[in-house]
Amino acid sequence: MSEHIFALIDCNSFYCSCERVFLPALNNKPVVVLSNNDGCAIARTPEAKALGIKMGTPEFMIRKDKTMRQTHIFSSNYTLYGDMSQRVQDVVREFAPECEVYSIDELFVKLEKYKTIGVIEHARAMRDAVLKWTGIPTGVGIGPTKTLAKIANHLAKNTPDCGGVFSLMEEGARNRILDEFPIEKMWGIGKASTAKLNAMGIHTAGQLRDMPARQARQYGTVVAERTILELRGISCIPLEEIPPVRKGTAVTRSFGKPVTSLDELKQAISTHAARGAGKMRHHGVIAGRIRVFMHTNKYRNTPQFYGVECGSLRPYTNDTRQIIREAMRLTEIVFRGGIEYGKCGIILEDLLPASEKPQDLFSEDLPHSPNLMKALDSINKRHGRNTLQMVGMGMNKKWKQRSEKRSPCYTTRIDEVPIVRAI
Amino acid sequence: MLRLIENHQTLALHSFVVPCGFPSPADDHLEDNIDLVSHLVSRPSATFVMQASGDSMEGAGIFTGDYVVIDKSVETKPGHIVVAVLNGEMTLKRFEKREGQYLLTSTNPRKYKPIELNEDNPPEIWGVVVGVVRKCV
Q1: Per-residue b or e along A16-52, where b marks 16 or more CB atoms closer than 10 Å to that residue's CB
Q2: Of B54, B73, B124, the CB nearest to A423
Q3: Residues of chain B neighbouring A86 (CB-CB closer than 8 A)
Q4: Global pTM?
């Protein structure tokens, strides 16, 4: 049997690392990146963690706390992170063409081909290249299954002097390590599963590995059974090189401040609808249904409301005008007055590749649809999002999210590139 | 006709869409337009653009406002213009070796003293400058 060799490349504190690439003065300093709307910390450097900042620590607390306030705080800049993520992927593909983009900061690759030159050496060369060429530090975990590669990655990041690369390929050493490895740190084992497994006396990955498969089936799901096999070194989760076709796409945002009027809600919903339509054109898909929702902020002590309504799009479309028109009709149906809304959004469903558009005898496309949308996209790409927009999207957008500490889009906008001193 | 296309897949399509009249003698000589980006950028994943500010590299033809193209994958060699990190700030310098001593210099040495690099002061090179872009009009 030829053994699989998976590696998981995981970027260290990715969003913070992206900010540091262009501000080297922040190396070794505490840095956090905030969620959309500057709510709370979603990415932290080890220095920030050491100050007691947790995932979800609110922005005001970081700003006011005596020790935390030395932290450098950034609003999230997904334009920058997306571009840097693409660069990391491109470098990784030069070293391992079989590659699955698992998330914005994690990639799975297969390394069997590099057995002769040494898998660990190859992984180390890849890690060094990613660091030097993009400035992003990573950890690489290697194992015969994805689950084990994920555990190895955790060890790569937490074992000093392993040089950021850790392998669990060798069975003896692997099993000894699994016997010590707590299950709550494993891939896909959340709080609920941990409690369930703990109740059965299972606390380590080694104990889970040794659980009879039949027993697992009794207590858990197929997922649990698969995890057990993966811990034994039997690969059950293959590399997914081609991202699955999206079944739906959502655009939702919290408001910067509570919104009560129908006008402002319509502005927000049409902005989200336009963004969703743009996303669909980018991916070459069309939608057959749209869902509009709005709700109150559940953390506020005000009357609560959740409203949702869905409608069909005929013909199937990705035309901003048609999607906004339907979204506005639905917004008027869902809206209730006298409520402080905290969040709204749209979800586009029944997505199909544009080439598979169903024939439709009873409805007609809006005039000039493809060309007009192409012109809209190219102008907005060139001059920044929402340069050209539908009137209903509103001009002053008081509801818009806070994003006060966003860094420049260093890598994608010529007027925001970093300044280099010649002095 | 179909046969013909199958056998000449590499020909530009233009050759077949002019059914009447004399085909252009330039058709067989079509080439892509000049692409300045591919001329300047050999590894896009490692290439970044910055804007220069200051007069220390004018002798190397880099003026305030110029865009410099930086490739982080290029190995630094003596003679290269580099983006060096000095006191946490990105700074344009020339990386040099004189009598066994590594230096970061400016093209304006009277105004900006060379910086000696050694074990106490290791160079932190962000990337190598591979091109300069300036719009004249």
Answers
A1: bbbbbbbbbebeebbbbbbbebbebbbbbbebbeebe
A2: B54
A3: 45
A4: 0.78
